[in-house]
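As a warm-up, study this chain.
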Amino acid sequence: MKTFSPTPKDIKRDWYVVNAENQVLGRLASQIAHRLRGKHKPEYAPHMDNGDYIIVVNCGKIKVTGTKMHNKMYYRHSGWVGGLKTTPLADMLAKKPEQVLMNAVRGMLPKTKLGRAMLKKLKIYTGAEHPHSAQNPQPLTLPFN
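Now compare it with the structure written out below.
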C-alpha cells in the first residue's frame, strides 16, 4: 500500500467561528493554531497548508491567568539606540485586542512562508459581528476553556 500524500485538489477548507469571550488566551491560541495548521484532519501533511479558516469574535473579552495582565510585556524596537518600546498586556488589550491574539497564534505556527500563509486564514474581530456570513461559517466549540 502506498503512502497517501495530499495534493492541492484534495484539500477541503471549512469556515469556523470561535467566540473568544471568557476564553484563556494561550489555550485558545494553541487550539486555533492546531486548526489553522490542519492537524485535526486525517490527511494532515506538515509540508502542506490544509487547515481551515477561523473567524474569532469578541476578542476584546479574552482572559489571562495569574499576573500576566500587568507583568507580560510586548516589545518592539525602532532600530535606533535606546529605541526599545515596551507595552504591558493590559494596554495592548485596551488598544489592539486583536493584535494580542494574532501574536499568540503567530508564535505557535511555523516561521516560514507556510506559516505566513496559514496566518492569513485567521480573521479576528473585537466585537460580535464579522463580515464573513457569505461563507456560512459553522460555530466551533473548542475542548479546553
